[in-house]
Amino acid sequence: QLRMPRFLYVGSGTPAQSTVHDSPAYGSLSPPTACKCIKIYESLDEGILRRVGAVDLDTHIGWLTPHPHNGKIYGVGSGKLRAFHVDSDGMLREFSAADTLGNAVYLELSTDGRWALVANYSAATLAVLPIHADGTVGAATDSKHHAISTNPALADRQEACHPHQIMLDPNGGRWALVCDLGADKVFVYAFDSGRGSLVGAMNSNRHLVFPEGAGPRHL
Questions:
Q1: Chain center to CA of 131
Q2: How many domains does the chain have?
Q3: Average pLDDT over residues 80-84
Q4: Which residue ranges run through the membrane (predicted)?
Q5: Could you count the other beta carbons within 10 Å of the beta carbon of residue 157?
Q6: Is residue 215 part of a domain?
Q7: Which of 136, 207, 137 has the alpha carbon at shortest distance from 128?
Q8: Does residue 217 form part of some domain?
């Protein structure tokens, strides 16, 4: 029986020294070896990965996710949502891009494949962008800006709001849950899949509040 190839796609991060005290360095590659690319591997038998190539880009890609239906790959990096076509040999070709309204660090696609939800870390914003029938992406249909007071004593990555993840609940995708590292909260918004919008106030009692300094990052 002919075995269909299976490919693994690895996005690149920005090299940097850690700013967190007493923690391992994050992004320890030196700038000359940094790759603004997506590396491509084929998954062989017995768990072996074989590198088959890379797609050079003009930026780093911090998050990649496959579309649930159309066979495309979507990624975020440097303020853009990017769409890639997958060739038969596993190589990627970018064919569409749109502004995420900030420096996106996380990407979630709705189960129907019509929407991309993005968390922008430094800008403290969330954005919803449409994915059209042909796989191209459009301008944001909605956004939210997190802005609440924070404790100056927790200035190490908690000097302001920092949305780190946005995900839809697995039971129908009616709710969007947002881990905000800076706010010590998981914000819970209703997701209107008809309009592509996040519904709810920042002071809603629906949000999950964590102890000061907890810094939730992922669910």
A1: 15
A2: 1
A3: 98
A4: none
A5: 15
A6: no
A7: 137
A8: no
